[in-house]
Amino acid sequence: MVLLKMKFTQQRRVRLAQGLWLLSWLAVMCGTFIFCLGLYLKTELLRRAEVMDNTEIHVVPNILIMVGLASIGTNWVASRVCQDSLDASRFPRWKVLLLAWFATAALLCCLLIAVVVLSYALQGRLEESLKVGLRNGIRFYKDTDVPGRCFQKETIDRLQMEFRCCGNNNFKDWFEVQWVSNRYLDFTSKDVKDRIRSNVDGRYLLDGVPFSCCNPASPRPCLQYRLTDNSAHFSYDYQSEELNVYSRGCRQALIDYYMDLMNSTGPGVLSVILIQMSVLLSLRYLQTSVEAAMALENPEDDSEGYLLEKDVKSTLEDLKAKALTMLKFGQVDSEASPESADAEKGADNTAEKAASPSPAS
Length: 361
Prior knowledge:
Blueprint: E1 6-8, H1 10-47, H2 59-84, H3 95-121, H4 123-139, H5 152-163, H6 190-198, H7 250-295, E2 303-305, H8 312-355
Antiparallel strand pairs: 1-2
Helix pairs in contact: 1-2, 1-7, 2-3, 2-7, 3-7, 4-7
């Protein structure tokens, strides 16, 4: 049973080849788009690597980059096949290569579908990575003199200003860490001594935030310190009025940014999948119709093209049988080699005995 059989005239085969040639170059451009998209997402993730605890989310841009490059190559090959499809002297050289091409194109479509699924599935991992990374970034904010952490303050400040956020969950995260370095504290001050003594770990904690948490859209001047003390500021109630610092935490801001970025790529990736599938199916029709025409006495006669020579179940069984046969041949060859060596050795020993003279009685 031939699956989805269609009849092709010479003119229809030519039109199919021309249309597929244009579609192949469109797929090449789509592959370039996928590659650039993966590269951009990879760059954005690397920019925030200091506030991420792991790199599992990097699997999404890595697959996009790999699939983009592979798509450019496979669809370029498809365009060359279209050019040679109507030349009886050049098309047969593609016959063996096309089987690998179909497998590669199908794998690319599966990988693109996996990217769409992973974009949603890895949201929990991304959130946990940012939670731990931002917590460490806030804790090491003051360590501007420690090797490996000297740029942490700049990273956090730029992050909070760019994404209009403050802290990990909210601005109160800064109340739980000492974010002012000891080198900038006056230990002769009574206030400093009292704050350090009142803390079990001997840290200098205060209900304040760095300058990068200040919201420039606030109508009043920035209030960085004593944010929970209503009496410290005139006409101020931190629970009822809108604070002059960003209320959204940076973890949520970054999650929204990256998920919006990955979700926005979904329609583009799905469009590329449809184009890639169209190229795959069209090339299969072109291949089978051209091969059928070449098998006729007059290659310009009408021919039939199809997707599968048999139904799906029979095709899968045939592929399974071929794979098992190839594995069986490989095992037979590996097992036959030592046996043949032993047989040759036994034959040599027999010949030596026959050649040696028998002892006299």
